[in-house]
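Session log. Operator J.P. requested a structure for one protein chain; no other inputs attached. Running the standard single-chain path with token output.
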Amino acid sequence: MAATETLTAERILEATEEVLRRYGPAKATVVDVARVLGVSHGSVYRHFRTKAALREAVTERWLSRTEKALAELTAQPELAAPAKLHDWFALLFEAKRHKAGDDPELFATYGVLIDENSGVVDQHVGILIDQVRSIVEEGTREAEFVAPDPEATARALFDATARFHDPAYAPEWRRPTIGTEFEAVVGLLLRGLRV
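Structure written below.
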């Protein structure tokens, strides 16, 4: 890092991803992160008090990227709720598939970090279910869906599609029929919601 560059939490998180990709979660250290940044490990600790806090922040940052893209889709007023719900699950599935396929080392690393940070994961899942609930409520208001309990419906939809977003199923995402299987499940769910 050049002397004129400010050390920010974001720069530390970027460097941490690089270190995790290179060494994996078992061998990556704060000293490795500091070395990549050209600073002392104490400088990293000024932003993140512990190694665990740093790892939690990296996990949260990784998960929030998907949340933001899905939030943008959820907020689109021009899409009818059935199309929006389909596209929401399709975007979630595609985001997870890309993460698993484009950077398998980092995806595997995040699998370990997610296990360490269940609170971050629970918060992430809560945010996603809240977005689905918002779409279900919209569809109910517009008389496109019948869902007396939008919160329970959103959780059921999320759970029913787990095969297409839960990292435990990542090996299946490479199958040539997975796109057809996704459409069959989401289509069935949408038909079940319609008036």
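Operator note: DSSP finds nine helices and no strands in the chain.
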